[in-house]
């Protein structure tokens, strides 16, 4: 009976002993991946003639429309609505890229 109790105690490592080295896991970085595409994050956005909320509305960009972004000015994006052919400015508050989540 004493032999059964002594065996686990003899095989235990002393409290001051360093644990075995764990292989370092390389950190995965997804910053080399291309940015995510722009998306409309509401039902519809007004396309304007200038990068201002007070400028003339020239069209409406719906969530289902395809569009391309040409340039950025502050929080405004100059786009072409490929579904209708309308060009103009939309607010970056509603049209933006999602943030890529990198899990390691």
Q: Which geometry do the CA atoms define?
A: elongated
Distance between the termini: 48 Å
Radius of gyration: 29 Å
Tell me the number of strands: 7
Q: What is the overall pLDDT average?
A: 83
Low-confidence stretches: none
Total number of helical segments? 1
* Broad structural category: mainly beta
The largest sheet, given as strand count, sense and whether it forms a barrel, is: 3 strands, antiparallel
Placed side by side, the strands forming the largest sheet appear as: 4-5-6
Helix content: under 10%
Instruction: Please trace the helix and strand order, writing H or E for each element.
Output: HEEEEEEE
Strand content: 25-35%
Pfam families: SH3_3
Protein name: SH3 domain-containing protein
Domain SH3b: 44-95
Signal peptide: 1-17
Search tags:
SH3-like_bac-type, two-stranded antiparallel sheet, mainly beta, 104 residues, signal, three-stranded antiparallel beta sheet, SH3 domain-containing protein
């Amino acid at each position: 009976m004493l032999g059964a109790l002594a065996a686990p105690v003899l095989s235990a490592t002393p409290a001051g002993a360093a644990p075995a080295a764990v292989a370092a896991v390389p950190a995965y970085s997804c910053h080399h991946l291309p940015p995510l595409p722009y998306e409309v994050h509401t039902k519809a956005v007004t396309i304007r003639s200038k990068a201002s909320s007070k400028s003339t509305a020239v069209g409406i960009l719906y969530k289902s429309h395809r569009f391309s972004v040409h340039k950025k000015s502050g929080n405004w994006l100059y786009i072409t609505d490929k579904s209708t052919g309308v060009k103009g400015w939309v607010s970056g508050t509603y049209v933006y890229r999602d943030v890529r989540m990198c899990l390691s």
